[in-house]
Design a protein that fits this description.
Layout (H helix, E strand, L loop, with lengths): L13 H6 L4 H15 L6 H11 L8 H11 L5 H4 L3 E3 L10 H14 L10 H10 L1 H9 L12 E4 L9 E4 L2 E2 L1 H6 L12 E7 L8 E4 H18 L5 E5 L4 H12 L3 E4 L6 H11 L3 E5 L1 E4 L2 E4 L1 H7 L3 E5 L15 E2 H5 L14 E2 L3 E8 L5 E7 L1 H14 L6 E3 L8 H10 L4 E6 L5 H10 L3 E4 L1 H9 L13 E4 L6 H10 L5 E7 L4 E5 L6 E2 L12 E4 L12 E7 L15 H5 L5 E2 L2 E2 L1 E9 L5 E6 L3 E4 L2 E4 H8 L6 E9 L8 E8 L8 H15 L6 E6 L13 H17 L1
Parallel strand pairs: 5-18, 7-8, 7-9, 8-15, 9-12, 12-13, 17-18, 17-19, 19-20, 20-21, 33-34
Antiparallel strand pairs: 1-23, 2-3, 4-14, 5-6, 10-11, 15-16, 21-22, 24-25, 25-28, 26-27, 28-29, 30-31, 32-33
Enzyme class: ligase
GO molecular function: 4-coumarate-CoA ligase activity; trans-cinnamate-CoA ligase activity
Keywords: Membrane, Transmembrane, Transmembrane helix
Amino acid sequence: MAASARGSVWEIQPRDVEAAGLAAADAAAFHAALRSAAGSAAASGDAVWAAVAAAGVLRPEHPHALHQLVYYSAYAGWDRAARGPPPYWFPSPTDCKQTNLGRLMEVNGPKLLGSSYRDPISSFNHFYRFSVENQEVYWSMVLKQLAVKFKQEPMSILSTSDRSKKGGTWLQGAVLNIAECCLLPCPSLKRTDDSTAIIWRDEGLDDYPVNRMSLKELRSQVITVAHALDAIFEKGDPIAIDTPMTCNAVIIYLAIILGGFVVVSIADSFAPQEIGSRMGVSKAKAIFTQDFIVRGGKKVPLYSRVIQGTSSKAVVIPAIGDSLGIMLRDGDMSWKDFLSHAAGRSSSYSPVYQSVDALTNILFSSGTTGEPKAIPWTQLSPIRCASDTWAHLDVRPCDIGCWPTNLGWVMGPIIIYSCFLTGATLALYHGSPLGRDFCKFVQDAGVTVLGSVPSLVKSWKAGNCAEGLDWTKIRVLGTTGEASDIDDNLWLTSRASYKPIVECCGGTELASSYIQGSLLRPQAFGAFSGASMSTGFVILDEQGTPYPDDIPCSGEVGLFPLYFGATDRLLNADHDKVYFDGMPIYKGRQLRRHGDIIQRTVGGYYIVQGRADDTMNLGGIKTSSVEIERVCNRADECLLETAAVSIKPSGGGPEHLAILAVLKDRSAQYDVNLLKRKFQTAIQKNLNPLFKVSYVKVVAEFPRTASNKLLRRVLRDQLAQELSNRSKL
């Protein structure tokens, strides 16, 4: 990788190109084209790389080693400390005016910013600050860009008259049904009944054409499910969904909200205990699930896990065909029997219109107490997430958006609303996203906006899953959930002819990202190019004092509390205690806690360095140390206590789970590998099979405060130093 890099692009020789995998017959021509594109030998690394990327010298079909050779050579002399992260993508002065934000700025910039407005790139920072300081103006413009139809228009965009509401009152008096907004034609977005709403493919049918569902067909199926729900449940009932992200899952999700019920989102990877806790906290009356999950040609039981976790009524969808592959428990019903309750009902439906702050979806995020926080999404939340996607990932009506995820994670609802409220088409693959079959679906569906998490990209890269496929229709890539690996992202963007990767970092309780890439700023691997539109924040030092906005620094982030779409309550915890208590006052308002430690670099990029609390991010799933420790403490009778911490690899990438253990008999010897296997088994069985234990160590005792609080941060730092020293040996 970087070891094969030369001191500059000009030092690359034809033999280096051959060594990187290009045939000898092509190496000389590539070398000549590279030198021609690179321009002056005196040019800086970013200028050289920008010229090479723009010239198209590097192509998707070239070996990754060749992309590595050129990229790392171009930036071999780059002083990251003095200049910040090296950019790999640069906005075009012409194309920027065709982006969603660019068009908005071109129309409104001169009026809002006056004579200081120049163009979308030069004036972006100024316009961002305007969006923070003038949220009423910004949101009144953005609402007009989305398929949001009010039954009753809001009296105001933002009211701050009630000081007890720290986040303000948004869209006061507005009444709507956000699911209906997803299902109606929208002339301003050129969406008609015949527009394609969903493209999908079932795993195993990868050589067949993709399937398509029109907006009219989607609306008809949603109405059928809504009628069936009305026949069985009471308005306002919480109803859970624990299935893979399929067409049926999307239909059920929209039908529940259209009918005035509340979705309870549960990930299909959870163990029975986790399913049960979420059903209990939400008081869900029923749960939609599947008999099996089909992944990589294997059938993984799902219904059996659900009925171990809850006694609530289950509606069971067959994973394959029309018939279930299991016997149902008394009181449960098949998908076919459920739909029969809609027989004879009207083909139309009257949506339940509610205030904008009405509860529509209960999602879950792990807290530091061990019990998952029940986070309520109102009708503001979909508007926020769709507007962020519109502004930052530039999703447009002509786009086909695909983001492998699940309704149990926040990206599930986000991708639904981000497509349907912007007029884009949603692409779903009914199967494992880890291999070539999914990557072929991306090609065959004509995906233009592809989202991912870093572990997915790592899998695609390791398997060379995009080899021979055409991903050139992709114009924007997105990533979220965990820290990105620089080389994995180099591979990803190279497969799509060096399109931008928009890094996103936020939270379920925000319904959005607070830091995010933008197509109006240069992008750097593993870094966020700025805050999301209308989001203000400061970085706090250890005394809670904000650093100046224009200097490189590192500390806990404090969000400005007037945040469109953010929660103002939790269903099973004290909202103020979780998000506000102990946070400093800034410009007359108490800052909102998010919990991230972030670094602002030279050049104004942001890098997430970890959590201020004891929450960790494992494979894109936020969980608490307490949850893992609770499970591991019971893994073996010899254990006195355990401590779970996450470690960031020195080269970047996802966090690794490390578990430290104190034995009851401090003098006893114990096989660490055996203990590691026991921890892994306990976590897979009782918590989440996606969590992998990377490191286990037995210690004599844990560092603690005077009040006996476990100092996990000290453990984390000690372990990181130890592993770093090992890697140098």
